Amino acid sequence: WEGVCETSLIKATVRVTIDAARITDIKITRHVCGKGKPAEAITRTVTEKQTTKVDTVSGATGSSIVILKAIENAVAKASAKTES
Hints:
Blueprint (H helix, E strand, L loop, with lengths): L1 E5 L4 E9 L2 E11 L9 H8 L11 H23 L1
Antiparallel strand pairs: 1-2, 2-3
């Protein structure tokens, strides 16, 4: 499932793989940011904890928030599809 989040300065597109109601993989396919590259490690934490309610990456808070929102958007698409 693809999720996107964009602000005026930071943009992220992710592809989230969900199997048996679990996030099994998250790939960042686009991340436009200033110095927020370290935030990309947040995908591993989300996969491990199975939630986007995780701490942001220090020094890359903006990018962390945008990536998390993109993941949430992908999961919401998956949830809507399985509910219909």
